[in-house]
Amino acid sequence: MLLTAAFTFAHAAFGAAPSGWSDHLESDDQRFERAHTAFQEGRSALTYLLLQQVLARNPNHVKSKELLSSIAPPPLLPTASSHRRLWLAMELGHDSNISSASDMSSVHIPALNRTVDVKKPLYAIPSDFFGISGGGEAAMKISTHTRAFLSGIASARVNRNEIEFFPLHYAVSTGLTHQFGVTRWTLAGSLAERRLARYRLLVGRSLTGQVAFPTGTALETTLTLEWRDNLFPYFDQVRTQGLHYGLGFLHPASRSRLTLFSGEEASGGLEKSLDRKIHALDASTRMSGPLNSKIQLSAAWSQARYLERSPLFLVTRRDTTLLAAVELDYPINDAWHLTPRVIFEENRSNIPLTNFSRQQWSVTLRREF
User: Fold this and answer.
1) Domain coordinates of the chain in residue numbers?
2) 279-288: long-range contacts (C-beta < 8 A, 24 or more apart)?
3) CA 129, CA 157: separation in Å to the nearest integer?
4) Contact 359, 344 (CB under 8 A)
């Protein structure tokens, strides 16, 4: 069934093979050259099929493994029936602003007509840090076209200059994905929690539906609808809920992605200070680097428009956040990876206390199982 589906897709997508391409006469290197040509033409599905054929006959074909690692499986091809991956990581680095706080030493409060000093933890604190994290993912085949998946991650960080500022985070997600004709449908649920030492800052839940389908010969388009529920236990149990909409584009051959988000979050209680409308744009791409490494470039822009006027600053809050990140994933061997990373973040707001800039430099050592 799997081979029949793959052949049917290949024949429909690329037409019958020329008579001169007799598979039993074609060497591994010749087939790799066909795959490389298809890759340069943006035909990621054909590239994937040809590379899998080479590696099925010769698992040690180095060039095929390198090219396959730089592309994602095309959305129309049947994926592996099941898989499992676990990892652990340690991280060392420096953070210029561990709490994403303002770097202002004093701020003017219009409602009080006075200037007050900004005290910890409302001002920026730089620190070296040590972090540890771990996670995993697994998928299981339920039927020919349906799979279940489960993933999770947990992390903690110790900041040398502020030991009591001890952030912890975990998140788990599970769901189903189904291939229906040329489209892939996904339904997933997630639970996440952020803590600061013993204090629970945020408990988030979400339910997400997504459909992905091919656009032309080289792109995959995704449409996403997500319901979010955020509880803030430390802040008098304030809760917000809302819907978020997403439109994404993926170029599997280069692993380049562009995603647009929009949504609204509102509180069901009397506290309305967190009610807001959100618009965001994310972009990322991956490319080959020196010594078999991979370079990941990411950028994000988001804007939050709060709906309630600030009683202290006498304005309706507006935030614009910019983020840029660069990382290099260097494989020491099949199990160990070394990843230096740089992150720049800035928030521009008409509320002085929420203006901040932040830079992080780190090196991560990761072990995969």
Assistant:
1) 2-69, 83-368
2) 279/303, 282/257, 282/258, 283/256, 283/257, 283/258, 283/259, 284/255, 284/256, 284/257, 285/254, 285/255, 285/256, 285/257, 286/70, 286/254, 286/255, 286/256, 287/254, 288/70
3) 7
4) yes
Please list, in sequence order, all residues whose beta carbon lies within 8 angstroms of the beta carbon of residue 298, skipping any fewer than 6 positions away.
282, 283, 284, 323, 324, 325, 326
Give the DSSP letter string of 113-181. TEEEE--TTSB---EEEEEEEEEEEEEEE-SSSEEEEEEEEEEEEEETT-TT--EEEEEEEEEEEEEET
- Say how far apart CA 239 and CA 264 lie, in whole Å: 13
Query: Which residues, at least 6 apart from 253, have a Cβ–Cβ distance to it below 8 Å?
Result: 39, 42, 44, 47, 71, 218
SS3 of residue 19 by DSSP: coil
Return d(Cα 74, Cα 32) in angstroms, integer. 18
Sign of torsion, CA 66 52 20 41?
negative
Residue with tokens 């054929």: 53
* pTM for the structure as a whole: 0.74
Residue 34: strand, helix, or coil: helix
**How many Å apart are CA 182 and CA 175, to the nearest integer?**
20
> What amino acid is encoded at 3 in this protein?
L
Question: By CB neighbour count within 10 A (0-12 exposed, 13-18 middle, 19+ buried), where does 143 fall?
Answer: exposed
9 band by pLDDT with thresholds 50, 70 and 90 = very low
Tell me the per-residue pLDDT of 252-309, one tens digit each, with 9 for 90 and over. 877 899 999 999 999 876 667 789 999 999 999 999 898 889 999 999 999 999 988 8
Cα gap 287→72, rounded to integer Å: 13
- Which pair of tokens denotes residue 51? 């590379």
For residue 78, cis peptide bond before it (omega within 30 degrees of 0) = no
Closest by alpha carbon to 10, among 36, 44, 40, 42? 44
- Specify the CATH number for 83-368; select among 3.30.70, 3.30.1370, 1.10.3470, 2.40.230: 2.40.230
